[in-house]
Amino acid sequence: MSDVPVPLRLARERYGLDTGDLDDVLGAALAKGADFADLFLEHTTEDSVALEDGIVKSGARHVAHGAGIRAEIGERQGYAHTNEISLESLRLAAGAARAIAEGGPSRGVAVRPARPAHDLYPLATAPTDVPVREKIDLLSQIDAYARARDPRIVQVMASVVAQQRVVVIAASDGGLATDVRPLVRLNVSVIADDGKGRREIGTQGAGGRMELATWLEPDAWRPIVDDAVRLAILNLGAVPCPAGTMDVVLAPGWSGVLLHEAVGHGLEGDFNRKGTSAFAGRIGQRVASPGVTVVDDGTIPGRRGSLNVDDEGQPTQRTVLIEDGILVGYMQDRLNAKLMGVAPTGNGRRESFEHLPLPRMTNTFMLAGQDDPEEIVRSVDRGLYAAYFGGGQVDITSGKFVFAVNEAYKIENGRLGAPVKGASLIGNGPDVLTRVRRIGSDLQLDRGIGTCGKDGQSVPVGVGMPTLLVADLTVGGTEA
Questions:
Q1: Residue 117, Cβ density class (10 Å: 0-12 exposed, 13-18 middle, ≥19 buried)
Q2: pLDDT tens digit string along 186-230?
Q3: In a domain, 1, yes or no
């Protein structure tokens, strides 16, 4: 019994299912001749606690379980899901999914567990097993610490979210993969008041696939609170952002969200197979300045976007997308890889058992260059330093984007000047990559707060970036 993966033991103990039952269900999905079928079985526990002004405002614990079954023939996919996990309900879902398949004989299936390719987030204790009292104590300490940092802090909001997801993925080609996926996130927001009617907010967060106990230590959470307080106080004195075309320096780390949105989605397999991406049909062509190398890597231990296997049971991997400015690959799930005649890259992801898998990013970032980050700033006479991004919008087909910048500074004569408010960056993703002039040696990944949306599905992701100089980017501002 000890050699059986935990998810399979849970499937047997909780739902009375074994590998023979999985074979049976997949065989039912193939009964009218589908090319391929798979089953995604999930049990997720998630809890959250939120504190506002020293008072617990909300607390919740949710348990969700269910299964999704896909039947595939050519480019067509039939999908059905159920939140009742029993052999009978799974057979009914399999029958619904196979409805798109026509003709052909049925085939037998024999799934067998494979040895895990990775062990990226081994945990002694599930984050959802940490007592709620400890989480409340953590948030109370954060509240008190933030207020003590500066008397202008008048409101503190903090929350902690913990999740434990157990999945089993069985496929008609015999593949059987399992995974136990922890996830934690700490969020802190503070509001500062200058006493003259002006209020500003500062928000920071962190997390990953790690022990929640990591964030119970003051050395871990205090830097997050410090940054939230600093940002709120900073914005009290921010001046209107000037508008126009200028050089922009992107700070390392979270600035990678611009790369994720403006470029990353355009490198996903489905958009390129359908020809709707600005990068479609451009493999082998120069799409960025020399020195620009972009990778997607789902194998970084403990990171928010990392997975031992993707949601189709494929081992995740490090995929080079752009190498020294040349487009060399796309991110692929199983179906789009098959239709494009290439290998899947372990990027098939889904929000839950209720959703079909799609090609999605994991941790996407640009590799470091050789330039001194401080020298990059000194090389700019007039421009903008974009330190921390907010929300944005991107058109995948054209690559056009608009991003809000929550923390930014004027660059004047090679030095950081006054903080500015109301800054936004406007441009075209593929075009931005060709405007990269200098690449810093200081690659950083974000603190573990990214969530990506696509086709109504949200999944956790990571981003990263070294300090970057982009020439002649359009900056939207509020300065008259």
A1: middle
A2: 999 999 999 999 999 999 999 999 999 999 999 999 999 999 999
A3: no
